[in-house]
Design a protein that fits this description.
With 831 residues, the chain is of the alpha+beta class. The chain has 27 helices and 28 strands.
């Protein structure tokens, strides 16, 4: 195993023998505007106590010029990932001088050149273990310390870090900014951003606490930055958490910076939260997109307490921050912002992710067994986030909201600036609720899988049972829906029940729609009874409550994925009711699921007909949708996706793009929409390089260049696919976004006739991909290029021949195999 892949055992031993007192990190970024310069100067001074004579510091990929231990220069022992440090005393000061490498993969210190104005931007991204790409450190979450960052950069740049600047000295064309010391934090949440960022300032005040607020983005994106909306959500969130946590925001300022080529949605660096600039909308956006951004803002804010103030001891307890932040993001959205129906999107967007992840053979408990950093990297998944959040929602229902929040407040007070495990949290929640939560934790946090719930009518009409597979304790509602005088399906009665067994008798009055887990209080797949399915097939649009409607959409989709509902039946429901679905989060999910079902769950002989019918549904509804509505946006995006695999509307789409046919009233064909339509034309052979180059002259931005690359790679030509394949595998100059574009273009159009020839090359390249690329880039290649075959045999052969492959690589391959096997299984039943 590479020494870059730190293990739980060795980091635990290091933490037992080393106590960090402070860091001083000096970064010289003056070389950044010269993009031929590969590196930057980095100096780390770390003070620590030790009960051992030797240890190591982590420093990945850079070069080390010198190491001094307690004032004495020592020989440099650096294997590319670890620096050996010997001759330690009980109290030590170690100084490491070296050169780090600017990143193009979004890991470490990422450097970006804006094609619009030629300006350079830098930002850091470390989770779980990439601070060591920028400075020498003890790279593990349980070795917290105060940090002082000193950054030398071009004089005109904005330079920001976790804390406010303590001093700024400008000489000629450079500045030296020294930031105030942080409170004790883990290495992975330290942060620096620098460049010609546009900045909007504000503040939030509560009692005697004032928090300076900043919102930043690239200068060329400033016209699109709706800072007022972002700041409004930020203030609402700070108020919500102040009221509920009763622990003052501890990190001083609160900057939020939207950065390019970002691998995540956002990252909770205290005082300097980073976000993908996909949240800076260049054109119109649906209400669901604004709600998702607000949810992310609040998710990251919750981390200021869950994760930053109190941090998990090791990545086994990653859920202690991510599950709580996911739950709190939805809760705060629903109770503190205008998105009062945030739980609707959670039930469909987030829980769908969890349901899918939890049915894979690689599923894991929420409290996972994370033996090393590679495993930690892959556990930022639907289990840790969405399942964990769903289980917390069930926990709140189980112990009561007051007890839950009082337990959280005690947890913060007891463990502020420290590290914890599951037992620490359960102890506080048990004390405030009066419940022994060990059995609950065992059932929900330390097991895998999920229950499937069905309401069964007993023979002869003698009552009902709730039947659950994989039994767990649930507190849930049964919603009994009936038609009112206006013909709407409304809640007539909700019955709350506690169940633990495989079969639980319940007394209910039959109604046209009987919905288990009404109000979405627990985590389980729900099956609709046959009578309820028939009601839904006739009257889904009559369900007034969007959460209930969302739960029905979710139940239908889960049954389709599991092969229990014929995918054609799901598609008929989608074609009938998506045109009238008013909730954009539900509409976005349903249109995406319909397209997925056609491409994955239907037999090949049926796909062309269904693709054409779905495209016609999308095209017709685009023109009939309410002018300027979010639904109109969803339908034009769905049209572009459908037209990528069916060219029957190619001439009509070209007419929209060249202006021969005016766009539907109220729809502005912004650059992102135009690129999605051009990609559809390119993938079906109706647009070539010249047209794509001409479109780039309209939108010569970072997003435009990435979109052009995707469209170029999408063209249905053998030489083009060969170029895309070779570039993805061998061109290490591609940025993370450009690699995604190349992979996406290669796969566009589902042209197995053009790309099947690369199947064997894919399996031959897997081990080299994993050993030769960073884990982020390797993951994109392994997942993105996985062959969509009609058999699992080649995957099985690779698995048998590579039993000693790294566990994280095997996990990715196993997961892709399972997705393929599910496709084949559902297809075989759809006859």
């Amino acid at each position: 195993m590479s020494t870059a892949n730190l293990t739980r055992a060795e980091t635990a031993a290091r933490a037992a023998s080393v106590t960090v007192r402070s860091y001083r990190v000096e970064l010289d970024l003056t070389s950044a505007p010269e993009h031929g310069a590969p590196g930057f100067g980095t100096v780390t001074t770390v003070e620590f106590d030790a009960t051992t004579g030797e240890t190591w510091l982590d420093f990945l990929d850079g070069t080390v010029d010198s190491v001094t231990v307690n004032g004495a220069a020592v020989a440099v022992e650096h294997d590319g990932a670890r620096i050996a440090v010997r001759g330690l005393a009980s109290s030590n000061t170690v100084v490491v001088r070296g050169t780090g490498r600017y990143s193009r993969s979004g890991e470490g210190l990422h450097r970006f050149l804006d094609p619009v104005d030629g300006r350079t931007y830098l930002y850091t991204q470390y989770e779980p273990s990439d601070a060591r790409r920028v400075f020498a450190c003890f790279e593990q979450p349980n070795m917290k310390a105060p940090f002082v960052f000193v950054v030398t950069a071009p004089a005109e740049w904005e330079v920001i870090s976790n804390q406010s600047a303590a001093s700024r000295a400008v000489t000629d064309d450079r500045q030296v900014v020294e930031f105030a010391p942080t409170l004790p934090i883990s290495t992975y949440i330290t942060a620096v951003a620098a460049g010609a960022y546009h900045r909007v300032d504000s503040s939030w005040t509560r009692d005697d606490l004032t928090v300076p607020l900043g919102v930043l983005c690239r200068a060329s994106l400033a016209p699109h930055l709706d800072a007022d909306t972002i700041l409004e959500v930020t203030r609402q969130g700070l108020g919500f958490f102040a009221d509920n946590f009763e622990f003052p925001y501890p990190w001083g300022k609160y900057d939020q910076v939207f950065v390019p080529e970002y691998n995540l949605g956002a990252m909770e660096n205290p005082g300097l939260v980073t976000f993908t600039e996909a949240y800076v909308f260049r054109g119109a956006a649906t209400d669901a997109q604004y709600e998702a951004r607000a949810n992310t803002i609040l998710h990251e804010m919750a981390h200021m307490w869950f994760g930053d103030l109190v941090t998990m001891n090791w990545w086994d307890d990653l859920w202690l921050k991510e599950s709580f932040a996911d739950y709190m993001g939805a809760l705060a959205s629903a109770e503190a912002t205008r998105w009062t129906d945030a739980w609707v999107a959670f039930a469909n967007r987030r829980k769908a992710w969890a349901y899918s992840q939890d049915q894979l053979p690689t599923t894991h408990p929420i409290v996972a067994d994370i033996v090393d950093l590679e495993a930690a990297k892959l556990n930022f998944d639907g289990i840790t986030y969405a399942k964990g959040a769903s289980v917390l929602k069930q926990l709140v229902a189980y112990v009561g909201r007051d007890a839950f929040f009082e337990g959280a407040r005690r947890y913060f007070r007891e463990h502020a600036y420290g590290n914890t495990t599951l037992d620490d949290l359960l102890r506080e929640l048990s004390a405030t609720s009066g419940r022994d939560l060990d059995a609950w934790a065992s059932a929900w946090l330390q097991t895998t899988g999920m229950s499937t719930l069905t309401l069964e009518r007993l023979r002869g009409g003698k009552g009902h049972h709730i039947v659950q597979t994989d039994p767990r304790p649930h507190t849930l509602g049964i919603g009994l829906y009936d038609f009112d005088d206006a013909g709407s399906l409304v809640l007539a009665e909700r019955i709350t029940v506690d169940i633990t067994a495989a079969r639980t008798p319940v007394e209910v009055t039959e109604t046209p729609l009987m919905l288990l887990n009404d109000d979405d209080q627990t985590y389980a797949k729900v099956r609709l009874g046959g009578f309820s399915v028939r009601t839904v097939e006739e009257s889904l649009d009559k369900i007034v409550d969007p959460l209930a409607r969302g739960l029905v959409w979710s139940a239908l989709w889960n049954a389709t994925r599991d092969g229990e509902l014929d995918p054609r039946r799901y598609l008929e429901v989608a074609r009938r009711f998506t045109p009238t679905e008013s909730h954009t989060a539900l509409l976005t999910a349903a249109t995406a699921n319909a397209a997925f079902a056609i491409g994955h769950y239907l037999r090949r002989a049926e796909r062309d007909q269904w693709r054409h019918e779905w495209l016609e549904t999308c095209w017709a509804t685009l023109w009939s949708a309410e002018s300027g509505s979010g639904s109109q946006l969803v339908w034009v995006r769905a049209t572009a996706a459908a037209a990528t695999v069916d060219d029957s509307r190619a001439a009509d789409i070209r007419a929209l793009l060249d202006g021969t046919t005016p766009a539907p009233y109220g729809l502005s064909l912004d650059p992102d929409l135009r690129w999605s339509l051009w990609t559809a034309l390119a993938a079906t052979g109706h647009a070539g390089e010249a047209e794509l180059d001409a479109e780039l002259t309209r939108d010569d931005t970072a997003s435009g260049r990435t979109a052009r690359l995707r469209a170029l790679a999408a063209r249905p030509d053998e030489a083009v696919k060969a170029w895309a394949w070779e570039s993805a595998l061998t061109d290490t100059t591609l940025t993370n976004d450009h690699l995604d574009a190349m992979i996406g273009g290669f796969r566009a159009g589902e042209r197995r006739d053009l790309i099947a020839r690369y199947d064997s090359a894919y399996f031959a390249a897997l081990t080299n991909i994993w050993s030769g690329r960073s884990i982020e880039i390797a993951r994109r290649l392994v997942v993105g290029l996985f062959p969509a075959k009609d058999s699992t045999e080649p995957v099985d052969k690779w698995m048998t021949a590579n039993e000693d492959a790294p566990a994280a690589l095997r996990r990715l391959v196993v997961e892709q195999r399972d997705h393929l096997a599910r496709d084949l299984r559902v297809r075989s039943r759809a006859r």
